[in-house]
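Note to self: user wants both folds in one dump. Writing first protein now.
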Amino acid sequence: MSSKKPHFSLLVLSMSAALFLSLAWPPLPFVFLLFFAMVPLLLIELVTERFRLPAWTCFLYIYLALVTWHVSTTYWIYKTTVTGGVLIHLINPLLLTIPWLFFRWVKRRVGPVTGYVGLVSAWLALEYFHHSWQFAFPFMTLGNGLSRYPQLVQFYEYTGVLGGSLWILIVNISVFIVIKKAFVGQEVLFSRIPARSWLVPLACMVIPASGSLLLFYSYEEKGVPVEVVAIHPNTDCYDVKYASDPGDLVKRYLALTFREITPNTDYVIWPETAITDAGWLENLRQDRLIKRIKDTLAVYPKSKLITGAILYERYNERPAPEALPHVQYSSASKVWYYTYNAALQLGGGNTIPVRTKKQLVPVEETIPYVREFSVLRNVVSSLGGFSFSTRKVNNNVFTSANGNIGVTPMICYETLFGTSAAEYVNKGSDLLFILLNEGWYKDRTGAAQFMHYACLRAIENRRSIARSSNDGVSCFINQRGELLQTVSEYKPTAIKQTLRANSRKTLYTYFGDYIGVVAIFSTAIILVIALWYRVRGKKPETLLGKQ
C-alpha cells in the first residue's frame, strides 16, 4: 500500500467487506464472518485518512460495499419489482453510509475513541429509525444476520435484534483496533501485533455467545399445549391465485385442512390473502364464502380458523376522498373505499375478529409519503394489483374458543418489526401466527430469510410461532427459536404441531428497542461534543494510538 493513490487496495477492501457480509447472511451458514465483515470498512476509513484522500472517496468505497451486500443477499426482490429493487438497493445503503461519515467526522474532531462510540451509536440509531418511517426496510438490520443460529442469540429476550447489531459492531471494532497496530505510516507490518492483543476481541465474541448457549440449553418451554394445523397450498401467485374463483381456492384449502385437523385442534392457519375477495367489511358475516367455511368447519367446534383475506371498507368520512391516499373509487358500486390486507378468525359465535396489516411493504403495497412521491404510482405495479390501506381501529389479539389463549396473526412483512410483535404480546398474545404469500419472488432464499427472522421474534418474546405460507416455507418455531417442522415443497400439503402458549413476558416485551432510544441520545451527545471541540479549537484525543 505504498502508492500515492491506493484505489486498488480500497477496492479490494470494499469487495472484501461485501463478500464477508454476503457469505455471513442467512440462509448461508458462515455467520462467523459477521464479526470481521466491518473491519475492511474501518480500514477504508483509515487508509483514506492516512493518504489524505477526501471524504467522498471514503464514502464511495463504503457505499459500493453496502450496495453489493444488499444486491447479493436480496437479489430476489427484482423478481417481484425491478423499480422497487433499485430503490431499496440504492436508498438503504446510502442511509447506512451516514454512520461512517459521522464516524470519520467525529474522529477527526474529537478522536478515535469517541469516533468508535459515535459509529456504534449512529448505526444503532439509524437501524432504530429504519423500523419506524414509511420507507422502513429493516431487512438488513445487522442483528438479523445471526438468525440462522438461535443458540447464539438467546439474549435477544433482553435486548431485541439491536442487541445483536451492538455485539457485531463491538467485536468488529475490537478486531480493527488490534489490526490497526500493524499500520506504520503507509506500510503494513503484522509482526508488530502482540498475540495478547487478541484477548479483548476474543472475549467480546466468546462471553455473549457462551451466555446465550447457557440460556438456550437451560430454557424450558412454558405454557399450555395448543394443537395447530398450518396449510401450505403452493398456489402460484401470478397465474393461478388471483385469476381463480375464490370459491375454488377455498375448496382447495378446506381439503388440505381436513388432512390434519382433529377434534383436539385448537387453531387452523391459512396463508396471507387466502380468501382473495372477502367482500365488504360491514357485510362480512353475510359473505357466502365466509358462511361456507364456517359451516364446513362446524364439525370441529373447538377449532378456530385464522386466515388471510382481502377486505374492502366503504369510505364514509371527511375530508373529500380525492384528497386522501389509498382511497379508491368503484365505478360499479359508485363508492369510495379502502382495501385491506387482513386476517380473520372464524369459528363458533357470530363475531368475526378482523386485523388489518399494519406494516405495508413500501412501494409494493403502499406508496410511502404518497403526496410527495405520487409519481411512484405510475412506475411501480403493486402485488396482485392491490393498493392497500391501514386501519386505525384494529383487533390485534384474537382469543381461543375457551377464551383462555390470545393469539395474533402477523402478516408477512410485519415479522421484520420486533417492536410490533412485542406490542401484541403486551396486549395479551400467547402465540404468534404468521401468514405469508411468498410466491412473488419465485425464490427460496427470500422465504428462508423470512423464516429465520421469525425465529428472532420467538426468542424476543418467548412465544411459539406457526407460519402458513402460500408458496414459501411453512413451519413451526418453539420459544427458543428452534424450527420444529418445516415444509417448502412444491406441492400442496399441511402440517400439524403442538405448541406451548406462554403468557409470561420478557424484558424486551416490556421495554422494546430501548437500545435504539439510548443510541439516539448517545449520538446527539457525541454530536454536541464534536461541535464543542470544533468551536473551542480543542485538539483531538490520541488514546489508542494515532488518528
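First done. Writing the second protein, which came from a different request thread.
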Amino acid sequence: MTPRQIQILKSIVEEYTQTAEAVGSDVLEKKYSLGVSPATIRNEMAALTAGGYLKQPHTSAGRI
C-alpha cells in the first residue's frame, strides 16, 4: 500500500466513524485536503477496494 493510499484509507475510516455513511471522493477532497483531485482519490479508492480494504455497497455509492 502506498503512502497516499494509507492517507486516503485513514481519512475514509475517520469520516465513516463520524457519519456512519459511505464516503465519496468529493467529501474527502473538500474535507481532508489530500492534495489530489477527486478522480485520483476515486482511482486510489478502487485500488483499495480491489485489495479488500474497502467495500462499495452500490456502483454509484461511496465506499465503506
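Dump finished. Worth passing along: Residues 3-50 form one domain.
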